Amino acid sequence: MEDLVKIATNIIDRAYAPYSKFKVASIVKTKSGKIYTGVNIENASYGLTICAERVAVFKAVSEGDRDIDTVIIYTDTDEPTPPCGACRQVIAEFNPNALIVMASRKKVITQRLSELLPNVFSLKPSQ
Ligand code: THU
């Protein structure tokens, strides 16, 4: 896991966050072992901003790799940042039990998505 957090620290400056100045990096690891990177990308219209996690998930899915295993969220802060509600729902679409690793410069917290988003809305028969 440390290697993935290290990659996140290396890419965080790709974040485009001129409005909030809050940079986020995300790494998605799929069951095949491949990794996909993401950063938050803001927009002058604010509402079109996309979180780092969703960028990484959409990159994986658009490459045909839907089996999400782990999602790292890295911020250069003292406390780790948990994924926003929208990102939880998007990750749950592909794996409601994904491992979510929230890392900051001082701490790492690991939780299952099923703990962060219990009783998830799903149209899939069973998971
Ligand atoms: N942000 C993320 O990238 N991921 C999250 O889970 C929380 C919020 C970004 C969106 C916005 O660019 C900035 O953080 C401040 O909300």
From TrEMBL:
Q: A GO term (biological process) for this protein?
A: pyrimidine-containing compound metabolic process
Any one of the GO CC terms: cytosol
- Sites where the protein binds Zn(2+): C51, C84, C87
Molecular-function GO term, any one:
zinc ion binding
Q: Which domain of life is it from?
A: Archaea
The record's listing under Gene3D superfamilies reads: Cytidine Deaminase, domain 2
Which metal ions or organic cofactors does this protein require, according to UniProt?
A: Zn(2+)
UniProt protein name: cytidine deaminase
